[in-house]
Write a structure and sequence with these properties.
Blueprint: H1 2-13, H2 16-47, H3 52-61, H4 67-76, H5 83-111, H6 123-147, H7 154-158, H8 166-183, H9 188-198, H10 214-239, H11 245-276, H12 282-291, H13 297-309, H14 315-345
Helix pairs in contact: 1-4, 1-9, 1-10, 2-3, 2-5, 2-11, 3-5, 4-5, 4-14, 5-6, 5-12, 8-9, 11-12, 11-14, 12-14, 13-14
Length: 348
């Protein structure tokens, strides 16, 4: 609930046209910003003596970007409406698609016990993944173009009894989009963000004498997102760490090695791609590189499949991947906050 409301609120503040323009710049950032962390994870595993299959799992775990944490940080620093913020969000959406395709291709290979000499790709499953991605964006387009503006659609709920049920209508929209995204393989937060992106002020036909106005509705949603439910997201994130002192000494060097490899490769690849393929200036390119550092929930899905469900990696590897993920996520707010004074001083 918390992260869906947070992402909806951020999407609602974003201009749809601005977002579409950002998507045109996002492909290079997302692609290059996914390939390099995958390679860093893959070769880090091999360098510490782990198997080829383990290396693939390390690479997959380090691929998808967690945009929720970054956007929350940018919001707190009043940087969420910058061009860099749009670049991070659009790139993360594309990166999420690429990561899903990577999981669809590589996990069946790993589960089948394949190695580099006997790679068998399930083309049916791959085609199905592509189809789900296309279906998601087609439904998003149809919702924004025809259903949301329709007088008998959600617009009717927004304006029922002088806006009394407007917030309820927004909740229906947020969780419907979240459920749709989940069914098609995305994180629900991606769906919630698009719900906010598509919702426009003209969908509300509120008058001065009505029960609520737009500012009241926005205040309610923002308070629910950033004050009430949003912080629970971070509590749950932190609760996933379980300290086992007996194993810490064994994993500290591989964890730090993987962390540094991802930190450097992600910032340089995403930041460099933002400058040279996206056309962003230096200060925005650095912020995009930092903003793409967080690891997404997909990392925990891959770890869960690999360790909990199928025992494909050892307990030591489980701790290495989990701790590296959290070190990266902790780095996001710290690095962005530290960079903000320089960002504001640098010329556009």
């Amino acid at each position: 609930i918390g992260i869906n409301l947070v992402m909806f609120a951020l999407g609602w503040e974003e201009d749809a046209g601005h977002f579409v323009e950002g998507m045109k710049k996002a492909w290079g950032i997302a692609t290059i910003g996914a390939i390099f962390p995958f390679g860093a994870g893959y070769y880090s595993a091999l360098s510490f003596g782990y198997s080829h299959n383990s290396a693939l799992i390390w690479g997959l775990t380090m691929t998808a970007t967690a945009v929720s944490l970054t956007m929350m940080t940018l919001k707190s620093l009043r940087l969420h409406k910058t061009e860099a913020a749009t670049g991070i969000m659009t790139s993360a959406v594309v990166d999420d698609v690429l990561s899903l395709i990577g999981v669809a291709i590589l996990l069946p290979i790993i589960l089948a016990g394949g190695d580099s000499d006997t790679v068998q790709i399930d083309y049916t499953k791959l085609a199905f993944t592509f189809a789900k991605v296309i279906i998601f964006f087609v439904i998003v387009y149809l919702m924004g173009k025809f259903i949301l503006p329709h007088e008998k659609g959600l617009k009717r709920i927004f304006n029922l009894e002088h806006g009394t049920y407007a917030v309820l209508g927004i909740f229906v929209l947020v969780f419907w989009f979240g459920a749709l995204a989940h069914m098609l393989g995305f994180h629900p937060a991606i769906g919630a963000y698009f719900a906010g992106l598509l919702l426009k002020e003209e969908h509300f036909e509120l008058k001065p004498e009505d029960a609520v106005d737009m500012k009241t509705i926005e205040d309610i949603i923002n308070n629910l997102a950033f004050v009430v439910f949003g912080p629970v997201f971070f509590i749950l994130l932190g609760s996933k760490i379980i300290f086992d002192m007996s194993i810490l000494s064994e994993i500290i060097i591989p964890t730090l090695g993987l962390f540094v490899a991802i930190l450097v490769s992600q910032i340089l690849s995403a930041g460099g791609a933002a400058k040279f393929t996206g056309g962003y200036n230096n200060r925005d390119s650095i912020l995009i590189g930092l903003g793409m550092l967080g690891r997404a929930e997909l990392a925990f899905i891959v770890i869960n499949i690999a360790y909990v469900q199928n025992s494909l990696i050892s307990q030591s590897e489980f701790y290495i991947l989990v701790f590296t993920t959290f070190l990266l996520n902790i780095s996001v707010p710290l690095l962005i906050k530290g960079y903000t004074p320089f960002y504001k001083k640098m010329k556009s």
